[in-house]
Specification:
Length: about 160
Amino acid sequence: MATAETARLRVNGTEREIVVDPATSLLGVLRGVLGLTAARFGCGANQCGACFVLIDGHAVASCDTPLWAAAGKDIVTLEGLGTPENPHPLQRAFVAEQAMQCGYCISGIIVSAAALLKRNPDPSEAEVREALDRNLCRCGAHNRIVRAVLRAAKEAATP
Ligand code: FES
Ligand code: FES
């Protein structure tokens, strides 16, 4: 059995020090140690996108990211994008478009969309679909999800 070690992470702008088995995945630390449960466990194998978080601005599978690979990087979870009082434009748009059914995939999808809008604030529909290609939605809410991302881009561009 592995010995617990001290690790430091920067999550949602806050430095966190944790004592954890170094073999724990980033997703395991976020959910099980830090209580940040927006990122979900789906496949555990970088195949579904439910666990995506931003690492240095890129949407990354936290289920497949060892802790050492996240050290020293800027980690942002859905909780760090916005709050109920001050939601991110994507969060507002997903509510406005009712872009979900069960909601299990949505945290990862908003994270992928946030990475897209950061690098391309005015994406085409095809670019949105391509950016969300790694995120699976079993409920088939894809069309509403794409509409929500385009709406968020449009609203963010409106002064
Ligand atoms: S749970 Fe990480 S990609 Fe599916
Ligand atoms: S809304 Fe249910 S999996 Fe996407």
